[in-house]
Write a structure and sequence with these properties.
0% strand, 14 helices
């Protein structure tokens, strides 16, 4: 049951992330990227903090006392990774389109197992590697990238994907040590909001009337994506290791495409549908093949 809940959390999280691409793009019509992120993640923090106080405050006091230093270090690591990943993605949307951003963002799918393999020296089920390939092919087909040109924004998104991958890895590590998903979610959103505000106040203008003009995009990207989706990610990674989790999260490209079709009336062509199919196959392969192997092993023993 716990694995099923984690999978459902991962899928709901991915759905929110995918649909948020539209809000991120339209939310910068009147404000800068760091202003958008600062307000968005602070709204996410405000949404999480009451639940954290209500449900986790007692556990936090007891678990935090056990190893304060480790908790603070990993909280900073996931917060800084989230800040850098989201900042680079948000700035990139000024220079590239949503389709390219969605494609290059899922480069964290191959990055996660590669980083774990290089630095963690941990063995992974062989299904991870073909699943990664299928997800990348699917992402390529979803974006119609063959009709686009490589530009500055694409490079920024690829660099951001590196930090999305470290965020997934650090989250996977810390959630095995501390059962505090709401506390971690609140901590990382506050860190992102503070760093974004510092840069935004230096290089951008915080004009309240302009922020209010983007209120709907901010609320959606803040409460659902910046707040609850990242808490759902932490819940998901309690029972799913980072590499398969990254593959599941790559479904955000599928949800982004469907949202663009439904909300923006963009047409889904054959390539888009094939892209959805390839990513779905990659996700199913990463989850089902290890289960089949485990089932056969149990029967033989």
């Amino acid at each position: 049951m716990s694995k099923s809940i984690s999978l459902l959390s991962a899928l709901l999280c991915t759905f929110i992330w995918g649909t948020t691409f539209i809000a991120q793009d339209t939310g910068m019509d009147n404000i800068g990227p760091f202003t958008f992120n600062a307000v968005r993640f602070f709204v996410g923090f405000l949404a999480i903090i009451p639940l954290m106080i209500l449900l986790e405050l007692k556990n936090f006091k007891s678990e935090f006392k056990l190893d304060k230093k480790t908790f603070i270090i990993y909280s900073l690591l996931i917060g800084i990774s989230l800040f850098l990943g989201s900042a680079l993605q948000q700035v990139a949307l000024l220079y590239t389109d949503v389709a390219n951003a969605a494609f290059f963002t899922i480069f964290y799918v191959p990055m996660v197992p590669i980083i774990i393999f290089m630095f963690g020296k941990k063995s992974m089920h062989w299904s991870v590697w073909p699943s990664v390939v299928l997800c990348l092919i699917g992402g390529y087909l979803l974006t119609n990238f063959h009709d686009a040109t490589v530009r500055l924004g694409d490079t920024l998104v690829v660099l951001g994907a590196l930090f999305w991958s470290t965020h997934i890895i650090f989250t996977g590590i810390i959630i095995t040590k501390y059962n505090l998903p709401l506390t971690l979610g609140a901590a990382q959103t506050l860190i992102v909001a503070i760093f974004s505000f510092i840069i935004g106040i230096i290089y951008e203008e915080f004009i309240f009337s302009n922020i209010l003009m983007e209120i709907y995009s901010i609320l959606y990207a803040g409460i659902l994506s910046g707040g609850f989706a990242f808490v759902l990610q932490i819940y998901a990674q309690r029972n799913i290791t980072p590499a398969p989790a990254a593959i599941i999260f790559s479904l955000e490209g599928v949800f982004a495409t469907i949202a663009a079709w439904f909300i923006l009336n963009q047409i889904l062509d054959v390539n888009n549908l094939l892209g959805c199919f390839f990513i779905l196959c990659g996700v199913l392969m990463s989850q089902l093949l290890p289960l089949i192997k485990r089932s056969i092993f149990n029967k033989l023993n």
